[in-house]
Amino acid sequence: MTIFKFYQSGLHFGTFKLADQSITYSWLGSREKTLNDDNNATFKTYGELDIQETLKRWQDGGYASFSQADHFKTAWGAEYQRADEHHWMNRGPKYAVDLIEADDRIVGFQVCARNLTSVLIQPGYERYSVLAKWQEAGYSTTPGRAHQPFTAWAPMRDGVGLAATVILPAGSGPFPTVMERTPYGREVYVASYMRYVLRGYAVVLQDVRGRGDSEGEWLPMIHEQDDGDDTLNWIAAQPWSNGKVGMSGGSYGGYVQWAAAASGNPHLQAIVSMVTAGGPFTDTYYRRGAPFMAQVAWSIATDGRHFNSALTDRDDWDQLMKVRPIEKIPEIVLGHPQYGMTQFMRHNHYDRFLNRGDWFARRDKIKVPALIQSGWYDDDGIGSTEAIAATTDYPSDKRRIILGPWLHGGNAQYDLGPVHLGAEALRPDIDLIHQQWFDHFLKGVENGVAAGPLVEYYTVGEERWHTAASFPPAGLVKVLHLGADGSLAVPAPEAGTVSYVHDPSNPVPKLISVTQNEFEFPADYQKVEKRPDVVSFTTKELTTPLRVVGQVKLDLWASSSAVDCDWDFRVLDVTPDGQSIQMVEGTMNAKFRDSLSESKYLKPGKVTHFTVLSQKTSYELLAGHRLRVDIQSSAGGFVFPNPGTEEGFASDRFVKATQTISCGGQHASAISFVSDRPKN
């Protein structure tokens, strides 16, 4: 008989016994049962590890070939690369199932999934997994006990009741609380939040207004500050609460934390913000004024009270996306107007309505200790950039930032298309840091988390983590000028121009990952760059590595024959074999060049200055590579193509435009970025 123990976030949840092709288990002290498809499906809700499949493959000797080389491939196609003496990286998939080796055999498995890590391991070998860090930090693997979840209703100031699942730990209390507010169904999060309950926290999982069982009308973002404030007050008034509340969550679940923090509520004493969404005009419904195409599908899937991605499974999206006005697209799919999309498309410049949904506009009230987690390829990365900016003046012991080489789904895989990351790319200790953050600020535990590195960030290419006092770290700013001959170099070139024709009916495609629903995927653009409506500027071959850190700023001097346009640029790593891999990208609508609240149309043919900012990154281009900047006026599949008219997206009239970029002389277009090599 062989025994494996299952741990999540440092807690021992279950024990599995393997004998004669059968598997039995006990879970949180329950009586022993036979593992089958039904109960295995329940275990999947605790993480991204299929326990039954993994153990059966181990029983069948599926990992026996691991000792033959530094790489091996299993019979079912899983690829592994040796990371170190005791660890193997699972190459390729999201939710990599890494292997733990000891005594010349595979003794365990470890899986990271954005904000938690699962470990399935034979007793006695725990020290080779992330469990060693939990032990070093002083945590017991023995879980506490919990009461059965119950439903409670939190009253809002307008009389609307919001439904919440409340889970209390055993004991008399009162307890500190960890809360997540979500539009995706609170029941989805029960399993993953048990780790807090079993360590002595009350947990509140709430459906936001108009979603799930909650009352009211669903209008994204607009009510979250007041509803978050009211919910915090409701929690603090409960007999089981000690008045101290922390919030956690990612994406929209990150947004609602910052919205609640912008209320200034004193009961909110810690947040763990993961891949948070930002403002409606800078990140979610618009990207600096350019309507964000992904929001259409999201609005359709969230139209009812329960998230339904099946509504977006269609084969006519290319035709649908040509429908104008934009808010008609969900109406065609659903058979009725989609309230949120209709409202946000009608407010096509930054006004009082959009301000209500913009927590960043009230950042002066945000004082709560914040742990900020995001990644270079997070398609909501603008939100985390805003979070970093909002907390710039925080004391060093009230803020911590972790920025990895991750997608929006984050901290889960080593391979992103043409980008192949190193063994340190994933952080199996991420949930330990989350736990320490709440323990320190909600329980007063002196565990050193607030004295740790203020910023931890991973450099792609170099494949290692660095620490800094700020992000981007202080350092030399490098300026590279765009040349009319396609050059990209330090000295400003002679004056010149380069032009292309933008056709809104034939937009330049942005290469996204449809399978992973990721919009900042680091794809290879060498074929796209052959289009006549893409202009490239490239350095000479690098003789030494070049580091790009933080946001890249494009100072663009350009003109258009139309009264409006978009400017989209990419920064790319050109490899010796010709791949052109996106590092970062930035987009803006030209009429909002001076102010997001005022449309200022172009004077056709007049050279105008634009500032376009990219997403953030830390990337090292190796010697022999080249740095490239692509500029175009569309990003098909990402933002709706700018029609070039004053009617804008309310009309289906498109205007072809001649776009002219000025280089050198009085109108020297250039990019700039921090380029110092870090000390740590």
UniProtKB/TrEMBL annotation:
Domain Xaa-Pro dipeptidyl-peptidase C-terminal span(s) in chain numbering: 435-672
UniProt keyword terms in alphabetical order: Hydrolase
InterPro entries assigned to the protein according to its UniProt record, in alphabetical order: AB_hydrolase_fold (IPR029058), CocE/Ser_esterase (IPR005674), Galactose-bd-like_sf (IPR008979), Ribosomal_uS2_CS (IPR018130), Xaa-Pro-like_dom (IPR000383), Xaa-Pro_dipept_C (IPR013736), Xaa-Pro_dipeptidyl-ppase/CocE (IPR050585)
PROSITE patterns in the cross-refs: RIBOSOMAL_S2_1 (PS00962)
Top-rank lineage group of the source organism: Bacteria
Keyword Cell membrane: no
GO MF terms, alphabetically ordered: hydrolase activity
SUPFAM superfamilies reported in the protein's UniProt record: alpha/beta-Hydrolases, Galactose-binding domain-like
NCBIfam families named among the record's database cross-references: CocE_NonD
Protein name according to UniProt: CocE/NonD family hydrolase
